[in-house]
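Sequence design from tokenized structure. All designs in this work follow the same two-part layout: the structure record, then the generated sequence. An example of the structure record is given first.
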């Protein structure tokens, strides 16, 4: 559809800093969101009580106070602990539904969300319980909120290749519920090459592939994700800017990067939002998108991330429109649905 190329170039008042109403109205796709990372402290405490799970916190304030991270691992330790309150199908439903209601408020029209089955199965929870709760909420969101979605099963890279194969085996009865596989958790020391064979099996079954790479890990991990895992998108990827040849390749091949600005600030990949390079990535022609990663832990959902960028990076209306357009083009939707979202975008920015 040639008339739908580079819609962002038609933005009215392109140089103006984007305001909240404009940012909310943009139809946005979210492509990097860990559903376990959207567990708000209020729901965490409620589920802890409902399921008689002990937590080291007595109040919402105490939970929020604990969210002071110095790097990815200090976050992951708390993130995995908080997931311990999720036991039953209804818990996974409540978690997912709460996220989808926020999507609805923030103009997120499509979401491709990650989940970490191993975090739950290693606590003895059947993978079917996890699938059932999440997919019931996604289906309700389609009918009640008009939000379209997909699910991406992430392997935990700090666990072994064999663990990943076992997880994939358990997921096989549910493969019709997922778009693809991903790779998350502690990056440094766990290169993509460790998961080459399980990704090959997933791709052979027709699944898409994505992987976290270049968040804390070096550019070589991005090359491995592309060459060995043959991913369709790179999650984060901000460290690609350290390697000129890599940037050129990502631009040439149009590989989407699902960047998470507020996450990067909270996990000290960048010291502050004003230092974030996402707008430079756009200027270089990279297919960058904005995402929330783990919104309840990092203090902001997708619209909040856009707002932080307008405030601290003086992001313009044209840049915001470009990021929204990139998000729709980088998603795994196609055909009429993709065109409908692009048409909607065109009207909003006119
Ligand atoms: N799991 C949840 N959030 C993550 C992130 N930002 N990086 C790696 N693994 C994660
Ligand atoms: Zn992530």
């Amino acid at each position: 559809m040639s008339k739908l190329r580079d819609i962002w170039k038609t933005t009215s008042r392109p140089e103006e800093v984007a305001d909240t109403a404009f940012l909310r109205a943009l139809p946005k796709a979210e492509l990097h969101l860990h559903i376990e990372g959207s567990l708000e402290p209020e729901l965490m405490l409620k589920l802890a009580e409902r399921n008689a799970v002990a937590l080291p916190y007595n109040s919402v304030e105490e939970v929020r106070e604990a969210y002071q991270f110095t790097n990815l691992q200090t976050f992951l330790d708390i993130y995995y602990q908080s997931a311990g309150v999720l036991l039953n199908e209804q818990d996974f439903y409540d978690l997912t539904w709460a996220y989808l209601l926020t999507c609805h408020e923030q103009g997120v029209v499509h979401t491709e969300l990650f989940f970490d089955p191993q975090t739950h199965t290693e606590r003895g929870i059947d993978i079917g319980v996890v699938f059932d709760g999440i997919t019931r909420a996604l289906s309700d969101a389609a009918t009640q909120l008009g939000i379209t979605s997909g699910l991406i099963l992430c392997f935990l890279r700090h666990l072994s290749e064999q663990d990943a194969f076992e997880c994939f085996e358990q997921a096989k009865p549910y493969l019709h519920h997922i778009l693809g596989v991903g790779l998350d958790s502690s990056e440094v020391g766990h290169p993509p090459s460790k998961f080459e064979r399980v990704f090959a099996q997933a791709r052979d079954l027709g699944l898409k592939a994505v992987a976290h790479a270049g968040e804390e890990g070096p550019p070589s991990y991005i090359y491995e994700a592309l060459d060995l895992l043959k991913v369709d998108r790179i999650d984060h990827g901000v460290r690609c800017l350290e390697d000129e040849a890599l940037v050129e390749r990502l631009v040439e091949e149009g590989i989407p990067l699902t960047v998470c600005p507020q996450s990067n600030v909270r996990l000290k990949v960048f010291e502050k939002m004003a230092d974030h390079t996402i707008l430079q990535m756009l200027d270089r022609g990279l297919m960058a998108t904005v995402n929330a990663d783990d919104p309840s832990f990092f203090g902001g959902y997708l619209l909040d991330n856009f707002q932080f960028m307008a405030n601290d990076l003086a992001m313009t209306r044209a840049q915001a429109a470009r990021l929204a357009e990139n998000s729709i083009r980088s998603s795994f939707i196609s055909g009429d649905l993709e065109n409908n979202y692009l048409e909607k975008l065109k009207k909003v920015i006119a």
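The first helix runs from residue 20 to 25. We note this feature because it recurs in several other targets discussed in the main text.
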